[in-house]
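Shape matters. Shown next:

___
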Amino acid sequence: MQFTSQTSSSLGSILDAVKKPFVYAGEFLANGAHAQQTLPSQHRLRSAGGMFIGWVAMDKMRDYIFGVTQKSEGEYVEIPLAEVPPPFRFLYKSIDWNPHSDEPKEQYKKILYQFIPMIGASLGTIAGSMSAFGPVGPLSGQLGANGREGQFNNFTKSKTLNLLEADMSAQYAQAKTFRIMTALFGGFSAASMLNIVYGVMLNSAFVIANGARVFGFGGGLEMGNMGPAKAADALVSGVSHYVKAFEKGDKEALNKFSSIFEKRVLEPLFSIKDPKKQEEVRNLIKGLVEKSYETHKNLKAGELETAVAADMKKTLGTLDRATLEKLGLHLEDATLGKAFWPGAKVKEFLEKIGLISKEKTTESYMKRVLAHPQNAPQSGYAMGGVS
C-alpha cells in the first residue's frame, strides 16, 4: 500500500475518532465529575459481597439449627452431628422439624427454614455497605472507602458549619430512609422479584446522599453526579490545572472553571434560573480567580498555581457570607439539599409523605451555617434580606 498525504490524513481522522471518547471519558473522570470513590462501584461490590457472605453463612446456620440440608426441591437429607463444627453443635436440631409433614406447624417451620438465609443476606448487605461509607471494621478507610458516614457524623456533632458542609449533611440525611429500605430489601432480592424494589431503593439512596443528577434527569452529562459540596471540593482542588492551562495560552481556561463552578455548585444552592444572572455570577467567579492570579503572578511556575488554589479554597471552598456577597448572592437565599435526583418536585413530594425530613435536612443545618463566625451579617445587611 502506498501512503500519501491523503492516506495519512484519513488515518489521522480515524485515530482521532477512536481517541475522542477515551479522552472525553478521561477528562470527565479527572474533573472529579464521577469519581465518588477510589475503587469504582466499591459500595455495590461490598454490598453484594456482604450479601453473598451473609447468605452462605446463615444457610449453614439454618442447616445446623434444623439438622437437615436441602438437596433439591422436596429432598432433605439429615446432617450427622459429627459433620457439624464443634462451636456450633449447641445449635444442632434446636428446632425439631419434619420437612415431609403437611401439618400447619411444620409448614410454618418450612417458611422459617427458607427465610433464615435472607436474614443473613440482609445483615451482610448492611455490613458491606457500612464498610464502604462508615468507620466500621478493619477495612474502613482502606481499599478506597470514602468515609462519608464518618464525615457526616462529625458535621452532625458540630455546632457550626459552613454552607457546603451543611449542604452535604442535608443530602446525606435525606437518604437515610432509603438506606434503611435498601438494607431491608437486600436479602429478599436474591430470592424474589423484590430485587426491583431493592434496586430502586439502592439507587435512590446513592443519588440522594450524593445530591446526584442522573443523566437525562435535570442536568445531562456536564452536570456529573455530584452535589455542590463534592463539586466545589473537586473544582477548587483542580483550579491549579485551569490556571496552568491559562498560562500556556488557553484563554478560555478560567471561563471554563467559572462556568462549571456556577453550574454545579451555585445553581443548585441558589436556584439560579435567569441566564443573565448565571452569566453575571460566572464573570464574578472568574474575577475572583483573576484577582488572585494578579496578586501572585510574580511567583515561580508551580508556586503561582498553588497560591491561587489556596486562595480559592478559602473563598469558593467554604462560600462564606463575604464571598457570596462578592458574587451577588445572599446566604439566607441558599436552599440546602436541593441538588436532588430527579428534581425539586420529587423532593417536595417525599417530604410531604414523610420519607425525608424537611426539618432535619434544611432548617437545623441552616441554623448552624448562620451561627458560624465567618457568616456574621455584613454592615447594611439584615438577617433574611437587604436592610
User: Anything to note?
Assistant: The chain has a mean pLDDT of 77. The CA atoms of residues 4 and 324 lie 58 Å apart.
